[in-house]
Amino acid sequence: MTDTTSFAQTFGREPEHRYSAPGRANLIGEHTDYNDGYVLPFAIDRRTTSWIAARSDRLLRVTSTAATPGDVVELSLDDLAPAAMNGWSAYVFGIAWALRERGADLSDKSGFDIFIDSTVPVGAGLSSSAAIECGIALAFNDLWELGLDRKELARVGQFSENNAVGAPTGIMDQSASLLGEEDAAVFLDCRTLDTAVVDLALSTNNLEILVMDTRVEHAHATGGYAARRASCERGAEALGVPALRDVGVNDLPRAEKLLDAETFRRVRHIVTENQRVLDTVDVLREQGPRAIGDLLVASHRSMRDDFEISTPELDLAVDTALEHGAVGARMTGGGFGGSAIALVDREARTTIANAVTAAFAAAGYAEPVLFTVHAAQGARAEL
Ligand code: ADP
Ligand code: MG
Questions:
Q1: Residues 192 and 219 in one domain
Q2: In total, how many domains does the chain have?
Q3: What is the residue with the minimal CA distance to atom 22 of ligand 1?
Q4: Domain that includes residue 353, residue range
Q5: 173 and 235 co-located in one domain
Q6: Where residue 70 sits, what CATH number does that domain have?
Q7: Confidence class of residue 383 from pLDDT cuts 50, 70 and 90?
Q8: Given the DSSP bridges, would you call strands 328-332 and 339-345 parallel, antiparallel or unpaired?
Q9: CATH code, 217
Q10: d(CA 243, CA 174)
Q11: In percent, how much of the chain has pLDDT > 90?
């Protein structure tokens, strides 16, 4: 149990502040973020908590229950630079660096002792990275009295992850973690960063989101993710648009003539996925969550067949959930492993979860980790 005692054991004094930020699941809109498109994530009721106390010097000293126990990593505010950071602590130090790079004057600020604990599974596609970044970003912004709004803090998180950590991610995760609300999703236009909170109304409809973590690891910073981004850039350039956001489903026949077959499939995923996000928002508003199942399934098929970022484990989780009565299901997150989500009736949850577990055992896959999530409030000060 991590609490103020653990902070005291590490730093020899009491914490003064506590901040938390959630991980996220993406309801729909995958790989659309870096194409200036639309996404519809929600913050989940799994959070990363930071206990903090101000220091009188310029040091940031940080430890995490996810790291080697007792291992405190430190960096002076005078030495902030990506080259001075590595490993998990770059997710913390990088925020201070990114704040400064984006204009905050930290020259007269003092440092902090920081103790981090999390219930967001790491590397499961639920953005433990945004959960750690966004809680820290909100804390630094408050405690250093920088006065930045949450949209700018999302940009700071992304800037840090891109440039201090070195992972080429979009703005979705940070936006969900900072802007999420209870039982609602965050509709985000990744070009303008305009957001709208869209009611999910799952609880009143007797629905839940079942997360099916395949426990197959993914590596964002490498390989597939970068290759997909490159394909999208290539497609946009060939089509003469700033980003694939500017291509509509009606433009696809022209795109098919211009692009090689693989690039076309990548483009088609992005273009149809953007449309599915818009449709999902409309359907949620007009008909409610029970009517979005087909859109979720179409999204999964598009990622499996056109974008080719699914895995056999994710496909099995999705197909098994659907066979056993899920309203809809799809992989979520960057792909190449991680988690799928299923929209399920509360009464059907156990049956579906058992069926997925049994299907994984029969296929000889590692046992999946299954749990339900609820849409939760974004980053906040806890005390
Ligand atoms: P995810 O899908 O979970 O966001 P990422 O690879 O983007 O996966 O981010 C995971 C990385 O974030 C971890 O390897 C670690 O470096 C860092 N991280 C996330 N949560 C924590 C935590 N609670 N404590 C320390 N580092 C963390
Ligand atoms: Mg991440």
A1: no
A2: 2
A3: 66
A4: 200-373
A5: no
A6: 3.30.230.10
A7: confident
A8: antiparallel
A9: 3.30.70.890
A10: 21
A11: 89
Residue 347 Cα to ligand 2 midpoint, Å, equals: 31
Beta-sheet strands, E only, within the chain: 17-28, 38-54, 59-64, 73-76, 112-118, 184-189, 195-199, 207-213, 328-332, 339-345, 369-373, 380-381
Q: Are residues 212 and 348 in the same domain?
A: yes
Residue 84 contacts by C-beta under 8 Å, 6 or more apart in sequence?
Answer: 75, 93
Ligand nearest, relative to CA of residue 339: 1
**Cα-to-centroid distance, 80 and ligand 2 (Å):** 22
Q: What is the pLDDT of residues 43-89, one digit of tens each?
A: 999 999 999 999 999 999 999 999 887 789 999 999 999 999 999 99
Q: Is any atom of ligand 1 closer than 6 Å to the C-beta of 91?
A: yes
Of the chain, the percentage scoring pLDDT greater than 70 comes to: 98
The verdict on the CB of residue 127 being under 6 Å from ligand 1 is yes
182 with 164, same domain: the answer is yes
Residues 36 and 164 in one domain: yes
Query: Averaged over 279-295, what is the pLDDT?
Result: 98
Give the model confidence (pLDDT) of 157-202 as tens digits.
999 999 999 988 889 999 999 999 999 999 999 999 899 999 999 9
Query: 105 and 137 in one domain?
Result: yes
